[in-house]
């Protein structure tokens, strides 16, 4: 009731008419009244501007697992999600309530999801699985080996296409669940597929979009969209829009902010569309207009017209809480957008509060509601909630935990968990307060009640190895592996390996081995066997001898074992024994390296024995203690034998007796497998017992005074101790993880048979013991398996280098233990070589060698290569004719002498593609370079009447698959290396290697362009004094490397390498350039050379380092213009 002025003085005063809802109807908008006239609360509604997208709902599917696919169902109102662990999940309606959840693939990530009438297709790297929307498996199809699928596309008649990073596309029939056709495509394959009523569009990672026929898959047209890589593209009507990356310098890619738009009617590009975000995904959203949605990886979304200018006001942002977007899709009704991020979040955007995914959707089938009454919910947030409300079975006989009196209970404090190393690494301190960004690695508001002690899981310790090696070393393992034992990797830059400092890892003169070659896990065992120099012409033994020769000549620079490992991979027995690892298993650490290196050692010793035809010696046996050694050598075996008296088979025990010690090889080895927790506990117990025993002995016996060493030994030990921080006194603390003996005494007695006992390291046998046939064996090699969950582990070798090899490499009489970890070499103490902390360092192989065995064998290096290797030899090619010979072999009178010049050029082919990671900022990091194989070697005479005539022009036959012949740069064409169809002078790598080795041992000087890189890739090792590289003769410090073609044009007025490279032409040109350099040096010395080089670089910058096609524009070479050099 309202109170007007003067009506009733006792009533409340009235309000202004503008504020009275009964008089001002504007105030009643949005208010509902019940029949009694009272206001009723109105539920809030979501107000959206028409045509503008905004976030409708977000859920977390699986926290911390990256989402890889978020497609909409084309038949029902479902949004599907696939993640990196192969899990599939669906959400119903705009509220995104969970509909179904199941595991689609066991290990691989889900790369694409496609809905059908009857089920859902899940595509992984090498598998296609069809499941119902509830998770029931309909079929599971496994691709052929080597497949790397990325996309699928539904076509008519219940068929589909599948493509990926391989040279074929599969057509698959969903009715018969069989492959129907296989279309061949060019490298690098098909990563994205789209379809229109005219063409099938295929996009690859090289930045091209191919237009193919819908039925025959024949290439009709091709658009070269980007110079770097293609990110995404979409087709609508007569327009094709694409986004991607462009090349920026050497091996760098940058996201291109220009969208390439193509007209499909005229088959040409139209005006590019510039956007304000870095586009990673794009999709047409044709409603009233042909709008185009472009999405950046940081979550920025922009809508624009493909024929107009982009408006900055149309930029929106997806709230991913700092995460990067990994997937994007648009519903068939164009009303909803879906995004996925690495944190497991799925985001739904819409332009209306009531959204429908499809124009006509069928009803989804839901489970029947539970008819059983559920128990009442308990509010666990209440601190005083009695636990007696939970029903429990009545137990009268057993005492309860609550029956204990308080005095008998002791409070146990909860140990705080360790701080995340990422937080400590990024923490900044101000005063006494430290702050760091949240890495979001631990679960939120979850702390374990008790911190578990880390135990070694020998079956699953390496299952969490990241796929990418980038950033593996950032977080240390709980058991800190010392830096020198960790898996070493080569950091590749723009210059490749030119600026990588190998000397930082190796300050000795012993050469290491590079680890990026396939099956390089055996590098440690190659270092072990370098003491044996093989002089046979057999395949594997000879390749091993070539490698040992390279390591012997190298003065600390690392070498590549590519030729030996290539010969090792071609042996069928090695593949049958499982010794050939796949690249994925080697990089992710899935292989059991400890057991694998033992199998490799057995195989290589057997193979070398067969090839060198040595007399059979005693076998190598496994064991880790005195009993296991004797038990493995003197075997007792039960078998069935025929008994003459009983005239039937009877069980018989056969015992092997040893008649002589291992004298022919003067060494024996033991395999130590620690593959279970029980075996690790055994090693721990033995080491702890040996430590306690040594500690008690030290307490009882006074320490012996240290004897003063010899003068030459004192200097070396003092120098090593100062530089490396070594200790040459064996303390008791150094023996904590040591129990294997450093010296063993072995003897044979008639009564007890083989006797093995530990022996003090420095003591010798008495004359009586030597007369009885006893021998001492010293520990010379230990090969441990280093466990590291971040990298999958690696193998290293501890080698005791004796006096003979020290004299050969360093010129000193000394014995020292060294650690060999690929290209990392470091001197260590003998105690460290025998230490095995099974928490991170497991023993694999132990070598014991007979004391003073060097004095009983001839250890001088033999060189069996003779001059006959340079004479005429037959070709492996069947179609090669003598009239087609491109070289004239040397005559006996033309044999080279020391100091003679030889022009050399080598051409290579690629065996596999380079592996690199593309970052969100467009930069690229090289993980593993492409593996090169020598394909052609040419040697040209450098003096004499036949100056410039080649005497070696060998094409190298290969049994491995060649990925790229690099014809533009090498001149090698497909078929040139095939003995069945080649018309070239084809030979083996070993035959050509012998020719080069003879020339190197003779002392000739090789002249070529880029020889140091060629030799390093895998030819051989040549001393620097024997190499004349024109790359560095005509090079100024901190300037670019100049190509051979530009140098030939500038100094010699020659136009070479026009269409392809010719090895003979390049070798001759290098010789001519060297003679030009000598001419300049004799004319004016170094000053004149620097002056000419300055003019060379100025000319190159003006021409952009490109050789002009003709000289009509006045850009002729100095020689053609008759410039006089003063």
Automatic annotation (TrEMBL):
SUPFAM superfamilies: Cysteine proteinases, Ribonuclease H-like, WD40 repeat-like
Family annotation (Gene3D superfamilies): Cysteine proteinases, Ribonuclease H-like superfamily/Ribonuclease H, YVTN repeat-like/Quinoprotein amine dehydrogenase
A Pfam match: UCH_1
Top-level enzyme category: hydrolase
Activity modulation notes: Positively regulated by the regulatory subunit PAN3.
The keyword Oxidoreductase belongs to this UniProt entry's keyword annotation: no
Source species, domain of life: Eukaryota
Domain USP: from-to ranges: 511-851
Cofactor field: a divalent metal cation
Chain's role: Catalytic subunit of the poly(A)-nuclease (PAN) deadenylation complex, one of two cytoplasmic mRNA deadenylases involved in general and miRNA-mediated mRNA turnover. PAN specifically shortens poly(A) tails of RNA and the activity is stimulated by poly(A)-binding protein (PABP). PAN deadenylation is followed by rapid degradation of the shortened mRNA tails by the CCR4-NOT complex.
Domain notes: The linker, or PAN3 interaction domain (PID), between the WD40 repeats and the pseudo-UCH domain mediates interaction with PAN3.
Name of the protein described by the UniProt record: PAN2-PAN3 deadenylation complex catalytic subunit PAN2
Taxonomic classification: Eukaryota, Metazoa, Chordata, Craniata, Vertebrata
